[in-house]
Design brief:
This protein has six helices and five strands. By secondary structure, it is an alpha/beta fold. A five-stranded mixed sheet has the order 3-2-1-4-5, sandwiched between helices. Helices cover about 45% and strands about 20% of the residues. Helix 2 packs across helix 6 and helix 3 packs across helix 4. The longest helix is centred in the last third of the chain and has 25 residues. It has one domain: YqgF/RNase H-like domain (Nucleotidyltransferase, domain 5, 2-Layer Sandwich), CATH 3.30.420.
């Protein structure tokens, strides 16, 4: 599957060097729900593929960490590599800008008077839910369509450019392959 369809849950991942937060949409793709935080170990892909199958996931959204000015960070490179590897498992993958997601979740948990232990154990899955809710809101309000990484380069650029044409020419789009070529 290379296109977003109206069927199946969407999984979101807040990918980090040590931990990966996981969240899922409801079957109707309206709400994001935090699920679990996984250790980023050599078994991560196996666990994720099992979750994808069990939850009947049709698309994965990976939070893309960027500097506030939009440039890549060291973690951006690792995240792009992870997403490329995941997309090779025949799972449609899209990026979603995750700037400030963990900080927003942390502030929300502090406002709820969550203990340090609770914050640490839940911030990654909550951040994944925060990322996914932004993605779902855009998807459900007819904004720029999410672009699957499994589409051809030309098809990705065409769909992305069409979706953002109303925003002007301030955006530059690169496919995963082009990003890796730049590294």
């Amino acid at each position: 599957m290379t296109e977003m369809t109206g069927e199946g849950r969407i999984m979101a991942l807040d990918y980090g060097q040590k931990r990966v937060g996981v969240a899922f949409s409801d079957p109707f793709r309206s709400f994001a729900m935090p699920d679990v935080t996984l250790a980023n170990t050599e078994t991560l892909f196996d666990i994720l593929l099992t979750l994808i199958q069990e939850k009947r996931v049709s698309h994965v959204v990976v939070g893309l960490p960027l500097h506030m000015n939009g440039s890549d960070t060291e973690q951006t490179t690792r995240t792009r590599s992870f997403a490329k590897d995941l997309s090779e498992k025949e799972v449609p993958v899209s990026f979603w800008d995750e700037r400030m997601s963990s900080q927003a979740v942390e502030r929300q948990m502090l406002a709820q008077d969550a203990s340090r232990r609770t914050r640490k154990s839940h911030v990654d899955s909550q951040a994944a839910a925060f990322i996914l809710q932004g993605f779902l809101d855009r998807l459900n309000t007819g904004g720029a369509p999410p672009v699957s990484l499994l589409l051809s380069k030309a098809e990705q650029k065409r769909k992305f450019s069409k979706g953002l044409s109303s925003f002007g020419s301030q955006f530059e789009y690169k496919t995963v392959e082009e990003t890796h070529d730049d590294l």
